[in-house]
Structures are given as C-alpha cells and as structure tokens.
Amino acid sequence: MTGSDDFRRAPLPADLDRLLHDLRGPLNAVVMHLEVLKRLLADDPTARASLQSIHQEVERLTAMLPVAVSICALEMGPSRPILLRGVVESAIDEGERKRVRVDPGPWPEVDGDERLLVLAARQLILNALEASAEDGEVRVSLEPRDGGMVALVVDDSGPGFKTKNTAAIVHLMAGGKPGHVGVGLLVAQRIARLHGGALAFETHQGGSAVRLILPSRAR
C-alpha cells in the first residue's frame, strides 16, 4: 500500500494554504460573536436553540473547508504509461485482500500520474468495502468503453445508491459515520477529471458499481 492513503497529510501549496488561513478568520469571528449572543440571550430558549444550530453549522463548515481545499490542491504530476492492474494491486491493503477480488484481465495501459490513480482506486475500494457487509466481497474489473476509453469498475454488495443524481452522490459529508466527511468519491472524481475522464455510478441487483473512466493508451 502506498503512502498516499491519506491525501490530506500532504502540505498545501502556499497560495491555497494562505486562502484557507484567510477563510478561517471570519469563521473564528462568527464563533466569538455567537458566544456573546448565547450569554445575552440565555433566558430565551428559542434563541439559544437557534444559536446552537448556527454554531454546529459553523463547526461543520470549519471541518469541511480544509478537506475541500486539499481536494482542490490535487494536481497532475509527471504522466507516464501505467498498467491499470498494477494501480489496483497497489491500492489494496494486505488486510483487505481476502475481500477484494480482482479480475484477471487483460488489463490495458493508461497515461497518467500513478500516485493519483492509486489514490483514486484506493478511495473507491474503501468506499465499496464500507458499503458491503462485513463478509461482503468487492470485485474490481476492467470494462472497455466507446471512444478509446476504459473503465475501472468497483462493485460492492451493499444497498446501492439512493439516487441517480451524481451531484447528490458526490458531496462532502456524504458518509454515514459520525465525523466522516465522505471525501472518497470527490477525490476519485477530481483525479478522473485531471486525467480527462469521469466517474459513473450504477445501482444493480445485489449492490452498486462505480466506474473510473479513463482514456486508454490503445485508443
């Protein structure tokens, strides 16, 4: 497994780090004024409840901002021919291999940034494992597409997507676990776009599938 499992550990570029710092200033000021209002309106239960809700939303925004900026900071490095099978193997943690079945192929080459493609595959596999039952299997396969494209397909055995609206599927705070910001699909979508590709979603009998669509070198 590569060291890119948590992309947020990488330092931000100076311009984005400064932007994040500037955005945090107004948020900190809002929190300070909320505390003042809580003391002034201590005897008004309706006002206190409203202020508490505002405080919680500000805390959510404060948590989301660095994640969003980190996703925006993902940029293409040197592009070279990469075998997709190798990308998948690098994206699977040894402790998860008994639950992840990788089709034998054949697997094509793509041009891209290996670090980013491993990160995208890793996020999709983690999402699929989380969506499946504890003993559920995740299948990773390859699918030819029209226009010289290929799709890395990650199938899970979970309940499927609740909607066909991509914008509703791919968003921050999409995870169901407390404190889970649900960045996996956003990261994979960003990386797909950097490579001239896209993400596609499908709910099918017995689970769902996410396709990481990329240009093939053989096109």
Order of strands, main sheet, comes to: 2-4-5-7-6
Structural class: alpha+beta
Largest sheet: 5 strands, mixed
Q: List SSEs in N-to-C order.
A: HHEHEEHEEHHEE
Q: Tell the overall outline.
A: elongated
**What is the rounded distance between the termini?**
30 Å
CATH 4th-level superfamily of the largest domain = Histidine kinase-like ATPase, C-terminal domain
Write down the CATH class of the largest domain. Answer: Alpha Beta
- Which range best describes the helical content: under 10%, 10-25%, 25-40%, 40-55%, 55-70% or over 70%? 40-55%
CATH fold assignment of the largest domain:
Heat Shock Protein 90
Strand percentage: 15-25%
Mean pLDDT: 85
Q: How many separate structural domains?
A: 2
**Gross CATH architecture of the largest domain:** 2-Layer Sandwich
The number of strands is 7
Unreliable segments of 5+ consecutive residues: 1-5, 176-181
